[in-house]
Model the fold of this input.
Amino acid sequence: MDVDSVSSGSSLQFLAKLLREAPEDDDDDDEHAPRCSVSAMTPGSIGPVKKEATDTFQAKSENKKTIWDTEEVPEGSEFDDTWDPREQPEYQILFKQCVGTEDVFFGMSRKDPSTACCEDTVIKIKLPDTKYSDITLDIQDKVLDLRTPQKKLLLHLPYQVDSKKGKARFLSEEETLEVTLRVSRKFDFINFA
Done:
């Protein structure tokens, strides 16, 4: 077999016809067959013909003046203020879990040191030269918003928290605000209690 017969235009068209799915209607077979020469054939012309989508986009919202739905806007984006000149304070996110002797010594529960087994999230925020009365703290399910006259912190939390079961204390000697938030998780094979 010589090379010219393998790469001829009719062989490529025959190969394209073999690879293409069989159409339901044989009447419009000429419509799907390649009409051009070998020079205009591309890898995209092999296989089934892609049909163009003619469906129009249907807006979900009832109000046609809205650009996006409220579900599409990430939680906490209303606090984003890129023009605010206040600097962001240093902070640290820690995870805390309640363990007993049965967890530590006997390994009777399924808890491990990972964050998947933690019950609380602790955020330590350094606020030098700040009084307790100057701090404004707002906590939502996934967002912590802290504002002082000199500092501003908008923190998207790694896990969803219960904003009603949080505790905050200001350690004036260390000039640190310590916020403890209960992580709200769905129960699974690790978090079953």
